[in-house]
Records
---
Amino acid sequence: MNVADQLSERGYVDLGRIDVGVSTLELARGLADVIGARVCASVDTLTTTAPGTKPLNTYGGNYALSRLPLHTDLAHWAVPPRYLILRCVVGSPDVVTHVVHQREIARSTPVGLIDRALLRPRRRLDGRMFLLRMRHGSIFRWDSLFLEPDNAEARLVREILAEEPSRFAPAEVVMDQPGRAILIDNWSALHGRGAVPLSAVSRRLERVYLEDQPNDQDAP
């Protein structure tokens, strides 16, 4: 399957090990051309640190070495970035990245529940507070840290998604070698990672976001 077909079927593409001589930004630009997207942010470096060393408005500050729950990146935005690339800089064979397509989550929830679930950001954005549907058009979103359930359906979804990722038969990717990379459809799949043992605290990834061309975006 080509990249577009894999994104549609699985919600992600395992890109394998990309030559470390190719920068993550160069990789992102090349993939953007293939899937009709554009790079919308600079490259971020993701590290794992001990509790209390990162701000509480970040995932690292809340979860540190613990399991990172399944989520959509920037789910509290009106339109989250369409894609993200995760690429290994310093790897570890002891940490697993989980990716779950929304179809697997829908199979584990009552019919229609996801479409009725309403969420609200924990903080105002640009001075405004607004509701977001868990699924609206092409966008499927979830985040237990930055979004709060606003109705009974969303609270039930929260209970379901709080369970171990194994319930949803996740794809498992081990970022164990420099250059190893995955491309995730941030509108179709949730991702997270397992707990980080002390032997893997030097693990480091790079992340970059891509967005659809403007005329392809969905608005909530």
---
Amino acid sequence: MAGPEIELKFSFAEKDAAKVKALVAATSGAGQATHQRLRTIYFDTPNQDLWNHGFAVRVRAIGESHVQTVKRIASSRIQGDEWEAQTGRPELDLGLIKNTPLARLASKPSIRRALRPTFEVDVVRTSFMLETGAGRIEAFFDEGAIEANGEKLGVRELDLELKSGEGPALFNLARAFVAQAPLHPSLICKAERGHLLASGAWGYAAKSSKPRLAKDMTCRRAFQEICQTCLHDFHLNLPSLEKFDNVEAFHQGRIAIRRLRAAMALFKPMVFDSAYRRLRDELKWLACLFGAARDMDVLRANLPPQAPEAQASMRAAELAGACEAKRLRAHQAVVEALDGERARTLQLDLAVWMEDGRWQRQSSNIAEEPIQMYAGARLGKRCRKLVKQGAGLAKLASGARHQIRIEAKKLRYMAEFFVDVPGVAKDHKRLKTYGPP
């Protein structure tokens, strides 16, 4: 049976587990805690065909019973659909998939033959039912591990799932929790972590992904898809930031923020509301921190090699040492900021605003307009403006040239969102002449 889920996910450090649990247990209207061990096997092909088509399939052991679930992985990671069925065994039952949207893909002989267990999730779940007055919310902690190909990845997360009531009941409770405990919002579900672990990609820097857009998609839905993709890409790079070889993760994290800011600028006529300026300014603050780290990474990479036993080389070594110290401080500033309440609240507020911001309840003719029409017009207008600003580029001061380059790169980000939408960004490849992001 299909049913939409509205939920928020948070990760937390092992040292903070007791504090987070105590916070939830002390919430007014919290019921008695229940405990379960959940062993879940996820199935896919070696090429991860199901996952690449937006589906996760699992069989979960709960006591002596087994539940098979097909989940459609929504781009929002906040709302999604799932289809559950009782099964008497831990193996995958393809017959139970017939009445789900996965049936067509799973019916292909090449897919059916290749399906196999891909990874396992083994957690202890502690659950509380919270009666807030405005809604009924299930809070559950999962602690354990994901295992794939002999590799293990720890799991420590809190999920808040709306059982009854409206979205604001869930969102307001989440904000209160983030303000009181070191909870990190995350759009990376266990299924995605497992698939990345199975493919050997977990914990490495990830390049930008393309939003799934269609020419007949409304502007409202396209904006959500684009922004949620950007925030997801940002979250995907966070685990790599504290690694020794983390230069690319900082770079990709910065790109994700810049793409998100570009999307907000592109859709400003539709989404400008009471929260817009604050979110834009907070993103700029975070972007500046990532930018400082990126600048130092680039500087270090471009320092000339040192010649041995030369006075100049000694001075170069001193310069290199000073640059490295400043680079590490810039990296640490980002890590500390992300651990702080300001950045954690920003990420939660962005996720909620995309899904349920006031802009959605404002009167706007743009929201239901086809994205093909809106994006084509907006990109064309920005392109003409950029060409006009760039007239006589060689005669402009360096500061003015730099600003034009920034605007050109912003336009490139905007155009790349619509690569797969016919007739919108057919000249996007030409924008690559403005250099790397």
---
Amino acid sequence: MVDVSGKDATERRAVAACTVEMKAETLEMLLKGRMTKGDVFQVARVAGIMAAKRTPTLIPLCHP
């Protein structure tokens, strides 16, 4: 393992994108907030934050 304690802190940014395919009816329900399981966009935001926080455990040699 490499000692990184002497390195200066740096600010980094990552950007991700995806494509989701669905029926037109599903998209309409989504945009109108009629999904039976709640706010899909808020769940996606929270999932993204949770995934970002786990980066050091998922990507080798990535230090928190």
---
Amino acid sequence: MGGGPAVSLALFGAEHLGGLAALAEDPLVLRFTRFPDPLPEGFAVSWLARYDAGRRTGSMEGFAILADGDFAGIAVAPEIDRSRGVVELGYAVTPELRGRGVATAALNHLTSWALEQQQLQRAELLIGAANVASKRVAEKCGYRYDHTVPNVQVKPGRIEDAEHWIREQIVNSS
């Protein structure tokens, strides 16, 4: 990828808690994610505990996005429905790395993990209708707009329209 940083995903662990705590206070992350606002005390630790539990049951997964080896955000599968072959994905990048291809590379890695490594059939994104940057990332990663979901409760006290984007597994019929 051009002149941008080398991007990879690592299973989210305790070593990433400081980065998550800082990311979770970013105004755009608070606006466009399901992170509670205001953040409760100990949010990062409880977030990790929830994803650790989901990892054990196979119902969710969390990764740290690394850019040149440093924490750059999160890439998540907050809902994995193996019986239907469907996964919801999400991502958030630190402010200083936005616009440098990090989100696109991270979503490509996350999508590959979901569709190829986990052998799920469809990856879905639920993107706030006003989140133009995230919609651009989805398009660059081969997702297509499916429909608008009106009046989504993003978090308590925040209701807005969201867009449903999908990317399906390409199955060779040879």
